[in-house]
Specification:
Helix content: 55-70%
Distance between the termini: 25 Å
Number of strands: 10
Bound molecules: zinc ion
Structural class: alpha+beta
Shape: rod-shaped
Order of helices and strands: HEEEEHEEHEEEHHHHHHE
Number of helices: 9
């Protein structure tokens, strides 16, 4: 007897390598453990006496082990011993013993109601009641359509974080090291700022964080040139105010060589920001996928 034929008797649904379905009032899944050995598991209310149940079930020839752990009752079944028994008879006897022992199937989410079906979310499959799934899906839909204020808050956080990160860039440049490495700090700080102010994870958040990083990198490189100019004037004993330094920096950027260097550093900075935030961006996309996906019946 193969698991597939065994499952077909009750029209169980297959997902990956497991079979899910119900019989009488019970919702359960079947898994192949090794050759000729399968497990039957179901989410149950633990308020029944386990020992009498185990004793009764082990009297069935094909049951080799019974365990219960965190609401999951698991029976190990030897398919060899099932050869001479009608499958339906096996299930009838198995669930009759469960019923007699007070085993009650429950929804995995609320752990109160009877399940209505098996549901799938984020690669996990579990029995649940319709109420729990409806509530969870309603919440997900609300999260998926965040209001403008959520985005505004997230944007402010990302920009503020990125600008804080640009301080690192400027400091590295002042010490005389390769400033573009500061792109890593900028991207990290932008991400932190975004999440700290409650920005949610979706594809738009990548654009918001990306733009904040761009602004901060350009700002950091601009400040570096301005500081260099200020040092230059100071060395010559010339006092220049902040506004004038900013204007002169813009003027200097008109020079193609300076501008080329400016753009080159920005691109390098963005490259480092991209490398530094690759893992973070992946997190965002994965979170977005998990939160966007609704719980679906299998
Ligand atoms: Zn429920």
């Amino acid at each position: 007897m193969h698991l597939e034929d065994f499952s077909a008797t009750l029209n169980l649904r297959k997902s990956n390598e497991s079979y899910y379905g119900h019989y009488l009032q019970y919702w359960f899944e079947l898994n192949q453990i090794e050759k000729n050995i399968i497990s039957l598991s179901m989410v149950v209310d633990e308020s029944f006496s386990f020992e009498p149940l185990k004793e009764s079930l082990l009297e069935m020839d094909c049951i080799t082990d019974i365990e219960v752990h965190e609401n999951l009752l698991e029976a190990t079944i030897n398919m060899e011993a099932l050869k001479n028994i009608n499958t339906i008879e096996f299930f009838n006897e198995f669930f009759a013993i469960c019923k007699k022992s007070g085993v009650k199937p429950i929804c995995k989410l609320c752990q109160i109601n009877l399940p209505n079906a098996y549901f799938k979310h984020d690669n996990k499959i579990f029995p649940s009641c319709n109420e729990c799934v409806d509530d969870a899906n309603r919440l997900k839909k609300a999260i998926q359509s965040p209001d403008l204020r959520t985005y505004m808050r997230g944007s402010i956080g990302a920009l503020f974080g990125a600008l804080l990160g640009s301080v690192v860039w400027v400091i590295i440049a002042l010490i005389g090291f390769f400033a573009a490495i500061g792109g890593v700090a900028i991207s990290y700080a932008a991400y932190m700022g975004y999440t700290k102010l409650g920005g949610i994870s979706n594809k738009k958040s990548i654009i918001i964080i990306g733009l904040s990083i761009l602004v901060a990198v350009v700002f950091a490189e601009f400040v570096c040139i301005a500081i260099e100019l200020y040092r230059h004037f100071s060395a010559d004993g010339i006092e220049v105010g902040l506004l004038n330094i900013i204007l002169i920096t813009f003027y200097i950027l008109g020079d193609s060589e300076v501008f080329g260097e400016f753009i080159r550093n920005i691109l390098l900075g963005l490259l480092f920001a991209g490398l530094g935030s690759w893992g973070l961006l992946k997190d965002i996309l994965e979170n977005a996928k998990a939160t966007n996906a609704l719980i679906e019946e299998i």
